[in-house]
């Protein structure tokens, strides 16, 4: 993944929505198209990774609860 500024999940999701809306409205010129698609691809990967990490952390918490390790 390219090194981009740190984003929250919500910021990344909103940015991705904005890019998709620009594409749908035809507001992106040919010169910008490649960069927008690259950014959208990066954002999708970022969001997927964030969701995967969150799911893993939640599974750990549930396991700890089941094992009586959390109070």
Task: List the keywords.
71 residues; mainly alpha; 2 helices; 0% strand
Q: How many distinct beta strands?
A: 0
* Low-confidence residue ranges: none
The SSE order reads: HH
**Pairing-aware structural class of the strands and helices?**
mainly alpha
Tell me the domain tally. Answer: 1
Q: Any idea what the radius of gyration is?
A: 17 Å
How many helical stretches? Answer: 2
Strand % is: under 5%
Silhouette: rod-shaped
Instruction: Give the N-terminus to C-terminus distance in angstroms.
Output: 37 Å
Largest sheet report: none
> Helix amount, in percent?
over 70%
On the 0-100 scale, what is the average pLDDT? 89
How would you characterize this protein structure?
By secondary structure, this protein is mainly alpha-helical. The chain has one domain. Helices cover 76% and strands 0% of the residues. The chain is built from two helices and no strands. Helix 1 (9-25) runs antiparallel to helix 2. The protein is rod-shaped, with a radius of gyration of 17 Å. The termini are far apart. The mean pLDDT is 89.
């Amino acid at each position: 993944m390219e090194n981009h500024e740190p984003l929250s999940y919500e910021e990344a999701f909103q940015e991705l929505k904005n890019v998709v809306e620009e594409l749908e409205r035809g507001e992106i010129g040919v010169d910008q198209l490649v960069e927008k698609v690259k950014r959208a691809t990066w954002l999708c990967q970022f969001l997927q990774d964030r969701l995967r990490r969150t799911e893993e952390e939640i599974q750990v918490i549930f396991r700890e609860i089941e094992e009586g390790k959390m109070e």
